[in-house]
Design brief:
It holds the Pfam family Abhydrolase_6. The protein has about 280 residues and is α/β, with parallel strands linked by helices. The chain has helices spanning about 65-70, 95-110, 120-130, 155-160, 170-180, 195-210, 240-245, 265-280; strands spanning about 25-30, 35-40, 45-50, 75-80, 115-120, 135-145, 225-230, 250-255. The protein has eight helices and eight strands.
């Protein structure tokens, strides 16, 4: 795979530089007019871009990346704005601006067309990218995704409480269990890793995105919907419902014993679904 130069390669760190099979992992930095975007590159081969959920960083995908790399893929993980070395979202940003960051990463890496996978709220960014820059996208994967942008107000309150780090851990755990994790799965995995200011900025960007054309834009491409069987935020829609809302090119995989968090709950199943989809979309 041919890569374009990336500005500002970060100094290599001695820990965590080598992925499965000896493929080097690199931390990169792309300078944009609106500020820097950092990313992690693992593996070698056709690219898969991973976009994390609301207010969370790329480390959420740590459990699936070794499996994707072992299957022969390059995994690109842009760090959301406001996390790590990525500059905060500028005032007035929309989902289109967030998608433009992903487009810049794909172009800098020479990875187009690529598979783009968005977890939960990250799926909105993936679908906006497919709408705005369709030539960069080979397929879209939606992981535990709300197909629209509306969320039940009671569940939304639990989402907010989950990342309100001033609340006692036990109270936050109750909200995490309600909104994100299937019964029996360890919600403590998501006590850390939240960035409240980032979540607020991302919510504002979603609210500022008033156009709706992107909601069906992914139908131009093969689309995978990975549903979590016990998802309180986005209960698994039927394939017929997905065809009605997302178009005829969508396929569905339902992952058992998983809630909206999905990726840390069932990393093997999520990786297997992504690998199969990426190979079929090649």
């Amino acid at each position: 795979m041919r890569r374009r130069p990336v500005l500002g390669l970060l100094p290599a760190l001695s820990m965590g530089l080598w992925g499965m099979g000896g493929a080097m992992a690199e931390e990169l930095r792309i300078e944009r007019e609106t500020g820097a975007v950092t990313l992690r590159r693992d593996g070698a081969g056709p690219a898969i871009v991973l976009i994390p959920s609301l207010g969370r960083g790329q480390e959420d995908f740590d459990g699936i990346v070794p499996r994707l790399v072992a299957a022969g893929f390059t995994v690109l993980r842009p760090e959301p704005r406001g996390i790590g070395g990525s500059a905060p979202l500028p005032p007035g940003a929309t989902l289109h601006d967030m998608a433009a960051d992903i487009a810049a990463v794909i172009e800098a890496e020479g990875a187009a067309p690529t598979i783009v996978a968005g977890h939960a709220a990250g799926n909105w960014v993936a679908r906006v990218l497919a709408h705005d820059r369709p030539a960069l996208v080979r397929g879209v994967a939606m992981l535990a995704a709300v197909t629209g942008t509306e969320i039940d107000p009671a569940i939304r309150r639990s989402i907010t409480a989950s990342y309100t780090t001033t609340l006692p851990d036990e109270e936050r755990l109750a909200h995490l269990r309600r909104a994100y994790f299937a019964p029996g799965n360890d919600a403590r995995a998501w006590l850390p890793g939240w960035h409240p200011e980032v979540a607020a900025a991302q919510r504002a960007a979603a609210a500022a995105t008033t156009d709706k054309g992107w909601l069906r834009a992914a139908e131009r491409h093969p689309l995978l919907y990975v549903a979590a069987a016990e998802d309180a935020i986005a209960p698994p829609p039927s394939l017929e419902e997905l065809h009605a809302t997302l178009g005829p090119r969508v396929t569905r995989v339902v992952v058992a014993r998983a809630g909206h968090a999905l990726v840390p709950e069932q990393p093997e199943a999520v990786a297997a679904a992504l690998i199969a989809f990426a190979r079929e979309a090649a």
